[in-house]
Amino acid sequence: MTTQQQPMPADTGTTQAGRTSPDPRSDGTVITGRSPARMAWRRIRRDKVTLAAFVITVLFILIALLAPVLTAITGWGPIAPDGKAIDPDTGNFPRGALGGVSLTHLLGVEPGTGYDLFARIVYGLRTSLFVGFASAVLSTVVGVVAGLAAGYSGGWVDSVLSRVMDVMLAFPQLLFIIALTPVIQNAMQTNSHGGTDENLRLLVLVLNIAVFAWAYTARLVRGQVLSLREREFVDAARIMSAGRWHILFRQLLPNLWAPVLISFALAVPQNITTEAALSYLGVGVIPPNPDWGALLSDASQFFLQDPMYLFVPGVLLLMLVLALNLLGDGVRDALDPRAARG
């Protein structure tokens, strides 16, 4: 009597030891899972506009970091005047065409002072990026902590913090910073010459912008926490006697990185614009620190005689803010789970 040989079972990717291995495709490739961060980065790379904005943003950051090297190559610093580049007979306007553009001064010089415009712009970029990123980091940290506390605690804590958020959101930010700056300036220490220390003014400017910006992040985080605190993993942590701090910073906070990152990315260009507006109005960065807003304010007086003085910093500020805004929009689209997959 012959026995029929049973067919061998199809290979399901299980090894003899009982362990499962990745299921290969017919062409030999192995299917691997992707983390949310890798999926978001993949979508950003496929978006040409966002990728271009990312490249431009990185380029601006590198220029700001390498400002001492770049100005050393040209031989002119941000507060080193060149008296030979301006003509006293024409009211100290730059010699030559296009605002004094030459091999020595790549973007010309400032009318009246003879400062190298390239050095002023490069160092002014450092000022704008420092204020924009520092105030965004500070407002994001405060907003995340306040949003976590309000959303998780509930009760009177949520009521008080929510009312504070409403009040902060109702303030006209620019007007109140303009009004508060002279008051804070009078209370600040003065330097040996009787004036306000320029570095301390930068710190106060960062604090002023952050004070009026944290409520946006806090409101966003609070709404997310109100939803997350009812999830099963939070209940499981409570059952296992996890403390409040563990639940807040080990369970809830890791699930908030996407909206927090989006909020931060959108806050940076807004803070840079606010800083430039304050400096343009004369209540922002003070000399000798160079700043694009102050450059635009000074250049507006010489527009008819030296249009390059206004055109160059104006176009660069537009490019920086536009690139940061487009990058923030791209990050939001890449991290939003409801967005259409590319």
UniProtKB/TrEMBL annotation:
Cell compartment(s), UniProt: Cell membrane
Annotated TM spans: 49-73, 129-152, 164-188, 200-221, 247-268, 308-328
Keywords: Cell membrane, Membrane, Transmembrane, Transmembrane helix, Transport
GO cellular component: plasma membrane
CDD domains: TM_PBP2
Bias (Polar residues): 1-19
Family matches, as InterPro entries: BP-dependent_transpt_permease, MetI-like, MetI-like_sf, OppC_N
One example of a Gene Ontology biological process annotation: transmembrane transport
Family of the protein in this entry: Belongs to the binding-protein-dependent transport system permease family.
The name this protein goes by in its record: Nickel ABC transporter, permease subunit NikC
Species for this entry: Streptomyces sviceus (strain ATCC 29083 / DSM 924 / JCM 4929 / NBRC 13980 / NCIMB 11184 / NRRL 5439 / UC 5370)
